[in-house]
Amino acid sequence: MISKRIAAALAGATTVSLLLGACGNNGGSQAAGSGASVKSLTILDYYNNEPDKSLVQKGLDGCASQLGITIQRETVPGDTLIQKVLQQASSKTLPDVLMLDNPDVQQIAATGALAPLNDLGLNADGVIKGMVDATSYQGKLYGLAPVTNTIALFYNKDMLAEAGVQPPKTWDELKAAAKKLTKPGRYGMAFNANATYEGSWQFLPAMWTNGGDETNLNSPQVAEALQLWVDLVKSGSASKSVINWTQGDVNDQFIAGKAAMMVNGPWQIPALNKNPKIKWDVVKFPVNKPDQTPVAPLGGEAWTVPLNKDQAKQQKAADFVKCLNSDANELAWAKARFTIPTRTSLLDEYVKQVPSMKAFAEQVKTARSRTGKLGDKWPDAAKVIYQAIQLGLTGKATAQDAFKQASGG
Predict the structure, then answer these.
(1) Residue 133: other Cβ atoms inside 10 A
(2) Are strands 152-156 and 259-264 parallel, antiparallel or unpaired?
(3) CA distance 409 to 400
């Protein structure tokens, strides 16, 4: 999650420089409508690790072939992408097609560096609302995401069966199950509560499902969500080490048999599948009260088109983004990468083809964008959230006071 870096980077950039830089340096201008003369596009993304790098390359190559063009792709580490984008904007070398983590789309759009996709003949019809919220700014669409992801509750089927425990549907059931599943060498529950945006991300299902809101972090609903985390750790059902664990660490605990349940995402499935002895399944995040609906955060990356004075190239880039978001490509990418199509009409077919993704496919229907309510102010709230979680889990503040303390109130 890059939002903290982008906030810092943008502090040193001006909108004017981005607007001037966004024109790109693509070897001169062509008349609008001469798209047939566009033979090549440049692309920048952060899928620089395998297997994602090769899987994404396959999708990019397919669209390049379909449009009769070649592509020059550059991949960079995720934590360097935004700084590179700002540098390229200043030096007028932005790519023709730019991938952004979905929480960053609004912030880059706000600088004036991106072309509104609506003006280029694209729309987000049928796309899950949370992703449309994430990729829109001031009423215009700036990005399209072929696939998305979210988090839910994994459980070890053998461990639950042995303990006579059903997958929990409520917080009370979750705490009772975690307690019953805990024994020497094994915790009932594992989650990531570290002092990063990842810790905030994993807390959002509890906070949002309970009606908590990032626009009012001092509400009783938010405090109740933190109390759930505190209760799990205080009772010994979850390790005190959750304050340091990453999501990868949580998965390692689950694979090692040291946790019977965990909050995590579908990107962990390849690692789980390498350990066939582990029988696992996934359910939606439990609710506090029976009338609540599970609400989790949306992950995933969107493809955008930087502004370009070469209108033919800009239109061809938009056509490329449209191709990446075709029904066929959404399904292919989702199946290959254990992600979820963003078009709701594809979800039932996808679950038929990849049954292990059923809970995630259900979860994304009500999932929310992190930037949906606060826009580019989300990083500030995320920082307060993870700092409050640390205060609550280390006993330095009660769940009721932790957010006030973290926000300096």
Answers:
(1) 19
(2) antiparallel
(3) 12
Closest CA to 389 of 247, 263, 240: 240
Per-residue pLDDT tens digits for 381-390: 999 999 999 9
C-alpha span between 116 and 89 (Å, rounded): 17
* Residues 114 and 306 sit within 8 Å (Cβ to Cβ): yes
Angle at 260 between CA 257 and CA 234, to 5 degrees: 115
Neighbours of 195 (CB within 10 A): 14
- 370 in Cβ contact with 204 (< 8 Å): yes
Q: Give pLDDT tens digits for 253-307.
A: 999 999 999 999 999 999 999 999 999 999 999 999 999 999 999 999 999 999 9
- Helices 171-181 and 220-234: angle between axes, nearest 10 degrees: 10
CA–CA distances in Å: residue 10 to residues 3, 83, 373: 10, 9, 20
Residue 117: closest CA among 147, 143, 93 = 143
- 140-to-119, 132, 256, 321 alpha-carbon distances in Å: 9, 10, 46, 16
* Torsion angles phi and psi, residue 338, rounded to 5: 50, 50
| Secondary structure element (H or E) that encloses residue 221, with its range | helix 220-234
